Amino acid sequence: MIPVPALSHSFTLRVELSAPLEMGVGRAGQRRIIPIVGGAALGPDITGEVLNLGADWQTVFADGAAHLDTRYVLRTEEGVIIEVVNVGTRHGPPDVMVRLTAGEDVDPSQYYMRTAARLECGDARYAWVNHCLFVCAGIRRANSVEIAYYKVD
To answer: Quick one: which H or E segment has residue 138?
Structure first.
């Protein structure tokens, strides 16, 4: 019998964002780059800081849905560097997406923000991240996002 994956909460990120850099309309939709300028990793498995290094390269489609393609770096409380690549989608009713784009806090039950993440690290203390898949749920705030990372067991 094929095993059914289980999820366990690994950590939550509070990611601080700078103003979006609007690129204009590309092949698939409106393109923007949102710089990542800091934040925190809040255990239990990883605790530390989000470095001022990385961005979310978004494509916003005609229906308001956004493809999220994010790279950033964590530094654990022990000083270990971990790369995070996180890809997913955010969508909801048009009026909700307009409110999110305007920087309003919107109840996360009114939209869908889910991603899949790959982490990589060269330090033996965190080598386990190289062999785990993570699925995530997120909340968009005016100048930040909060993302809960769940290990797929």
So the answer is: strand 134-140
